[in-house]
């Protein structure tokens, strides 16, 4: 599920050679193994969504890699299989890893990715003007600051 969702999310945004690389599954397994067992990620919160025993979504949030005065948490991962979009799974995962509406949160979202950006706006996030490019994927930073959030 994790690789399938990653491929669904980035197909057309990231080069096919990256998404179709034979080593992608192993690379994502290494990522998740570190995220789940490495002591330096102990403060992260991870949630899985299942339907009939099959994982359909995953989310992970925790302290920002680079602390800022503005945001106390960073949403690192939120993926839901495309067949589950619009079912409430994404919102449930977001709620599971973010500590209520009082926590200030930042995230990076691929741009363009209008569906994901609309999802985050619906949940009180707004683009703050920061842009980055990683592995050829342009992303914008979105933040949700309690004093600015009315959800």
Automatic annotation (TrEMBL):
One of its GO terms (molecular function) is acyltransferase activity, transferring groups other than amino-acyl groups. Residues 1-147 form the N-acetyltransferase domain. The keyword Acyltransferase applies. Keywords: Acyltransferase, Transferase. This is GNAT superfamily N-acetyltransferase. It comes from Agromyces hippuratus. The lineage of its organism: Bacteria, Bacillati, Actinomycetota, Actinomycetes, Micrococcales.
